[in-house]
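Support request, priority: normal
Reporter: lab tech (M.K.)
Component: structure prediction queue

Hi team, I submitted a job for Nudix hydrolase from Brassica campestris yesterday, and the status page still shows it as pending. I've pasted the exact input below so you can check whether something in the sequence is tripping the parser. The sequence length should be 382 residues. Please let me know if I need to resubmit or if it's stuck on your end.
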Amino acid sequence: MSCRLAKSYGFIRLLMNPRLRFPADGFSAFRSCSTATRIRSMSASSSSTNLMAGEDANSGVTVLPAVEDKYGGVMTEISHPMDPSAFSALLQSSLSTWTTQRHRKSFEWQSVDVTLFLKAIVFPMRARETMCYFATTLTIALGPEVTCMIAACLQTFLYTQGKKGVWIKLPRQLIGLAEAAVKEGFWFHHAEKDYLMLVYWIPIEGDTIPSNASHRVGIGAFVINHNKEVLVVQEKTGRFQGQGIWKFPTGVVNEGEYIHDGSVREVKEETGVDTEFVQVLAFRQTHKAFFEKSDLFFVCMLKPLSLEINAQETEIEAAQWMPWEEYTKQPFVQNHELLRYMTAICSAKANGDYEGFTPLRVSAPDQQGNLYFNTRDLHSRH
Ligand SMILES: NC(=O)C1=CN([C@@H]2O[C@H](COP(=O)(O)OP(=O)(O)OC[C@H]3O[C@@H](n4cnc5c(N)ncnc54)[C@H](O)[C@@H]3O)[C@@H](O)[C@H]2O)C=CC1
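Reply from support: The job had stalled in the queue. We restarted it manually and it finished. Here are the results:
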């Protein structure tokens, strides 16, 4: 009886403490507790696990340390080595803690009578004293286990906060833990040179996780000098190697690089010529260009600041200033629809009959970037 009373007291404290949160159904509450116990005993024998794990402030369950993202999810970055089975158990307890929303749904469906009872009888009883009286009576009548389950459910209705996406960032040296995460239902989202990012979606509804970068961004540089000569190259590698084709310098924009900076860099790297960015003249989108990724190709006009050519050894067979007419007469250019359009656009631009997009620095509270637009036509209207 004294044990019952002690448990009743615990139940009353549980009801009175709004900071306490439980997984939504009683069973998951008990499961989480037992997993947490398992983790804690593992922690005692493994200092690395100790460094990793932390106790969830609301549920008391041992979970992976995580920060919340802006989309209702959590991100955990694993930084210390640990045993895969310990990681697996920790992951399970973390997911159990973060999964409260899903459990709430299944509870509502399967235990609709209890839910109605709680909503009809318990919720309207706002007064603290009434709650205490109700809790004590309920505990004595139903026994501590059943009342504890009901308390967990009640807490869930009052304070549930389930997570959505769960991200795990694994550095290269801990890649062995990926298997455990995959077994728990995680999938690969993206990989960089030094880490693998996995993700898991908790809600039953379909995930809203955006796929990783879908496009590669490339540039082609139209650089024309005062003698109406255009800067062209022959490539050592790629689809046009060894065909004697003279083409605009092209390349790929780096991560964190603006299109206009990337075009100036690519021209310098491939030909040694210094340039100043003028405008984006046009862009093309294609699909399945680089593995499964699409391609955005920006045709940029650049003004030469130097004329001396110093062709890049690794990628460029030859580079030169070529008369514009000669460039356009190449069969390769004439027979290629994209290049025919590019030639027409560049000619129009060189003759002053075409306006491209000029970058304008724009700032938002959390972002800085460039808006590329036709400044001439806009300004002529204002
Ligand atoms: N190359 C061309 O004649 C044309 C290119 N473009 C556009 O220009 C932009 C850049 O294209 P490209 O210059 O052709 O770039 P690319 O994709 O051929 O190569 C970019 C860089 O990556 C390297 N690279 C690519 N795949 C590689 C691999 N498997 N192994 C080792 N190195 C590799 C290349 O050597 C180069 O340094 C793209 O947006 C493309 O659509 C558009 C029309 C024609």
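The chain has two domains: 2-65+83-160, 215-364. Residues 2-65+83-160 form one domain. Let us know if anything else looks off. Ticket resolved.
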